[in-house]
């Protein structure tokens, strides 16, 4: 089943097209990796999908224009983890996570969110934050904060997860933990993931599909093995990425 | 045609005037209200008055012809409207003043800074500062300006007239112990009243009544409830608010039991004569007396 | 969902209301004229029960002077503080407030314009200035935020302060310009900008109460959305907040409240800035607790400031803004120093 589709998406900042006529498709069960060098337009594309950045072209959510979709309705289907998550006030972890249930309780005739408490508890548990629930987010480390917002997205219980650098600030243990968590999450039918990942090994290990971006354009897309080839990477990164990674690993042997 | 003739005539006159100065070397030395000794090459024929009170004094001295400029708020006598107006106080504009080429500028001590004075003096203009918080100081001002303008006899006559009026009113007044409340700013903007060291306070004394706010100094914001509690016998509005002012005061919530309101003793005074340090304080005193004792 | 823990319990509300009522009573009983407590109580009690009130000074002062003023002060304090709390959350900046951003000055500009042009509503003398003050408060907010987004999308503290200073300067020169064009209204305009609570009456209090009920109600209803904004606008969008609509509604509510407050009392600084800070130190940042706490704190603070202003030099009154600025600025430095040190 097709879940999300982008048709000729273009985002301009002045005369500069940051995302340039890019199209993609996301099917149920796919984990789509957005890969490319800094400034390729990956985060901007995610901004467009989450309706935070004005764009031209169409983004279809289950076949319907996402622009017509009400904010709360959209949030029940799509959960977004932004790259920049800093908090100015001392909310507790639980308060932040609980806000993930907003889409289910907003509106004048707010429906009872019977499911909510359980979802929040599970999200806290999955991200290992149960013991931190009453801690102020101002006292958290970068990794703990990242997990807090990930827990918020889990509590939101969407069908599509959109993650901008989910491994940001996370040490290796949590990187592995989070990625396998998302992999686990994806196993339930009717779900899909899009994520921006810098670490090409992670992209290759967990992704099913990939879009390789360069200067706002799509350099290659399709199944992850077909996209992240040494040739494609060399042309986009202007260096022999494959040789470099092999060299890095060789140090450990 | 006649205008041309007139200016020619004026020029001739001025030439005569100047030769006269050179012949007599007419220097005037006065001490102004800054306490500065000022020497002027007289006679003074071109003068600017910044403050309305000083403008009124000059005109009363018969020097309206010498007035080449006036502060923006000088409006009495009505004929001064024809004299060019200049900005005064913090907005004082040197260019505007220099264009009028005055010999002497008379300004209010409080409204201007010493920097402004120095700037005027550097440009060859003699500065005379005036200030008056009491009627006695107004007399000093009148004498000062009389001397500057060479009208000492006229000055003494004005003072004598004022003194005679005040003495007459004082003699006719009854020391009844009744109180009067002067309102200088209306309730809408926060009540202000006048205490000691104001003309209003002195005028009340002359007319035999007691200022209800004799415990404050100068003009101050006061509490509404104080007016109600003190229940003055007379209310005099010095707010310059126009005809509806009395009705507004009469209708104020909670004021109904004030003696003055109960007896309808509220008077909308001419705020200019009551507050300007000038000869018309005499008129203010008469008006106040007539209000208190009933006009004959 | 365990909802109760985010809200205040009823007990807390009762406690806050008791503190406010105690404060109101204190401010009615104490003034520059000493009135026996017994007379005060009799006047209040009888008026509450609709009984005959013994005529005299105490009735006039208590019911016609102090009561309206105290009510106005409390309502203005609550409104300004609520607006401050809402804006600090919405813009995710602890320095955002009607006075720091220049919204209050904008509202003053509107009121001054109404005075200069003679805009008035028949039957309600305050109506013209009030309407224009509201309109200009909103226009100012729109202009300020437009400017802010053009300069710096993240709305950092520096740009907030910078824009507030620039905008306030712009407004004060605009007011001066209006004054020089409208010489015949110079007196009313000049004194209006100084602001005073002494002439306020029960109909002012009625308008304020209505505005606070409507707009305050709207703001309180959006407590969750404000929490989301306080965490981040992107985050708010991601969890399903209709960012544009909610922002517009809150800004309109804030503009109306600031406009009404400014036209009743003039621009009073520091209440909206400092009181939400103080409240936040006790309740934490969750707007479900912060907003009501800020309202109570603002009302109590302004009541005490007004009490000081009208009694400390009796029979003379000092401007209430002097008291709020003096206390507010000191408190603000202390609070800011503490949070900076802690953070």
How would you portray this structure in words?
Chain A contains 11 helices and 10 strands. Chain A is of the alpha/beta class and 253 residues long. Chain A has a 6-stranded mixed sheet, with helices on both faces. In chain A, strands 2-1-4-5 form a 4-stranded antiparallel sheet, covered by helices on one side. In chain A, strand 7, helix 7 and strand 8 form a beta-alpha-beta unit. In chain B, helix 5 runs antiparallel to helix 6. The termini of chain B are far apart. Helices cover 43% and strands 18% of the residues of chain B. By secondary structure, chain B is α/β, with parallel strands linked by helices. Chain C contains 15 helices and no strands. In chain C, helix 3 runs antiparallel to helix 12. The longest helix of chain C has 34 residues. The radius of gyration of chain C is 20 Å and the shape is globular. Classes of the chains: A alpha/beta (253), B alpha/beta (296), C mainly alpha (343). The interface between A and C is medium-sized, with 42 and 27 residues.
The coarse silhouette of chain C is globular
Give average pLDDT of chain A, whole number.
90
Task: Please summarize the sheet with the most strands of chain C.
Answer: none
Largest interface: A-C, 42 and 27 residues
Rg measurement of chain C, Å: 20 Å
Report the end-to-end length of chain A measured between terminal Cα atoms. Answer: 44 Å
Total number of helices of chain C:
15
**What's the architecture of chain C in CATH terms?**
Orthogonal Bundle
Fraction of residues in H or I helices of chain C: over 70%
Order of helices and strands of chain A: EEEHEEHEHHHHEHEHEEHHH
Helix content of chain A: 25-40%
SS strand fraction of chain A: 25-35%
Q: Are there runs of chain A of 5+ residues with pLDDT below 50, and where?
A: none
How is the CATH topology of chain C named? ABC transporter involved in vitamin B12 uptake, BtuC
The helix tally of chain A amounts to: 11
Structural class of chain C: mainly alpha
The sequence of SSEs of chain C as H and E is: HHHHHHHHHHHHHHH
Estimate the global geometry of chain A from the Cα principal axes.
globular
Quaternary status: heterotrimer
- Give the integer mean of the pLDDT values of chain C: 86
């Amino acid at each position: 089943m097709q879940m999300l589709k982008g048709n000729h998406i273009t985002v301009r900042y002045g005369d500069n097209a940051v995302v340039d006529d890019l199209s993609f498709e996301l099917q149920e069960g796919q984990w789509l990796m957005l890969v490319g060098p800094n400034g390729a337009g990956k985060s901007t594309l995610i901004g467009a999908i989450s309706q935070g950045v004005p764009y031209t072209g169409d983004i279809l959510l289950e076949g319907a224009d996402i622009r017509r979709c009400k904010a709360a309705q959209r949030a029940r289907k799509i959960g977004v983890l932004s790259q920049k998550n800093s908090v100015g006030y001392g909310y507790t972890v639980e308060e932040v996570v609980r806000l993930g249930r907003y889409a289910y309780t907003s509106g004048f005739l707010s429906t009872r969110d019977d499911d909510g408490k359980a979802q929040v508890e599970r999200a806290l548990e999955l991200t290992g934050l149960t013991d931190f629930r009453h801690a102020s987010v101002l006292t958290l480390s970068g990794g703990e904060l990242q997990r807090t917002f990930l827990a918020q997205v889990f509590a939101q219980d969407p069908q599509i997860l959109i993650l901008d650098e989910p491994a940001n600030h996370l040490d290796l243990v949590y990187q592995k933990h989070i990625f396998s968590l998302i992999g686990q999450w994806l196993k339930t039918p009717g779900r899909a993931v899009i994520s921006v990942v810098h670490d090409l090994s992670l992209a290759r290990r967990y992704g099913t599909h990939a879009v390789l971006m360069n200067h706002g354009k799509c350099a290659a897309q399709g199944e992850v093995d077909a996209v992240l080839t040494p040739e494609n990477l060399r042309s986009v990164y202007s260096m022999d990425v494959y040789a470099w990674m092999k060299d890095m690993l060789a140090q450990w042997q | 045609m006649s205008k041309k003739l007139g200016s020619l005539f004026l020029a001739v006159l001025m030439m005569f005037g100047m030769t006269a100065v050179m012949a007599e070397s007419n220097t005037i030395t006065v001490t102004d209200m800054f306490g500065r000794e000022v020497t002027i090459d007289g006679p003074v024929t071109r003068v600017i008055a910044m403050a309305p009170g000083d403008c009124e004094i000059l005109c009363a001295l018969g020097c309206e012809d010498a007035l080449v400029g006036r502060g923006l708020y000088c409006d009495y006598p009505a004929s001064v409207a024809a004299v060019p107006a200049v900005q005064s106080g913090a907005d004082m504009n040197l260019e505007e003043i220099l264009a009028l080429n005055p010999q002497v500028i008379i300004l209010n001590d409080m409204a201007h800074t010493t920097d402004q004075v120095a700037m005027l003096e550097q440009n060859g203009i003699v500065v005379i500062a005036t200030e008056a918080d009491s009627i006695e100081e107004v007399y000093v001002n009148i004498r000062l300006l009389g001397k500057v303008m060479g009208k000492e006899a006229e000055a003494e006559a004005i003072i004598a007239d004022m003194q005679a009026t005040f003495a007459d009113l004082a003699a006719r007044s009854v020391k009844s112990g009744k109180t009067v409340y002067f309102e200088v700013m209306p309730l809408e903007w926060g009540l202000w009243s006048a205490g000691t060291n104001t003309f209003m306070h002195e005028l009340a004394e002359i007319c035999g009544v007691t200022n209800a706010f004799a415990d404050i100094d100068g003009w101050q914001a006061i509490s509404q409830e104080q007016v109600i509690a003190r229940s003055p016998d007379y209310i005099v509005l010095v707010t310059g608010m126009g005809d509806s002012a009395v009705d507004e005061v009469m209708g104020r919530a909670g004021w109904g039991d004030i003696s003055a309101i109960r007896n309808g003793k509220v008077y909308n005074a001419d705020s200019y004569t009551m507050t300007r340090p000038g000869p018309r304080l005499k008129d203010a005193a008469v008006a106040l007396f007539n209000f208190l004792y009933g006009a004959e | 969902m365990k909802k109760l823990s985010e809200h205040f319990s009823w007990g807390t509300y009762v406690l806050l209301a008791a503190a406010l009522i105690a404060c109101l009573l204190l401010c009615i009983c104490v003034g520059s004229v000493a009135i026996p407590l017994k007379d005060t109580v009799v006047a209040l009690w009888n008026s509450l029960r609709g009984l005959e009130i013994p005529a005299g000074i105490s009735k006039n002062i208590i019911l016609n002077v102090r009561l309206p003023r105290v009510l106005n002060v409390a309502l203005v304090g609550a409104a300004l503080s609520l607006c401050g709390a809402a804006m600090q959350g919405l813009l995710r900046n602890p320095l955002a407030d009607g006075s720091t951003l220049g919204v209050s000055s904008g509202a003053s500009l509107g009121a001054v314009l109404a005075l200069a042009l003679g805009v008035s509503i028949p039957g309600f003398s305050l109506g013209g200035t009030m309407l224009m003050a509201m309109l200009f408060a909103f226009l100012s907010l729109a202009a300020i935020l437009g400017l802010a987004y053009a300069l710096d999308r993240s709305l950092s503290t520096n740009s907030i302060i910078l824009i507030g200073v620039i905008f306030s300067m712009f407004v004060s020169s605009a007011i001066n310009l209006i004054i020089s064009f409208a010489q015949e209204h110079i007196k009313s305009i000049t004194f209006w900008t100084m602001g005073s609570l002494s002439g306020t009456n029960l109909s002012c209090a009625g308008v304020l109460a209505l505005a606070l009920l409507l707009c305050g109600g709207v703001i309180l209803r959006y407590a969750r959305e404000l929490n989301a904004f306080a965490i981040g606008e992107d985050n708010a969008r991601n969890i399903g907040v209709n960012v544009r609509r909610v922002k517009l509604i809150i800004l309109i509510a804030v503009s109306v409240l600031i406009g009404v407050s400014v036209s009743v009392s003039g621009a009073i600084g520091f209440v909206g800035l400092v009181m939400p800070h103080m409240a936040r130190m006790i309740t934490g940042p969750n707007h479900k607790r912060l907003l009501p706490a800020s309202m109570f704190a603002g009302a109590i603070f302004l009541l005490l400031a007004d009490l000081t202003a009208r009694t400390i030099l009796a029979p003379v009154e000092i401007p209430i803004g002097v008291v709020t600025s003096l206390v507010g600025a000191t408190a603000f430095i202390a609070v800011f120093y503490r949070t900076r040190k802690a953070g």
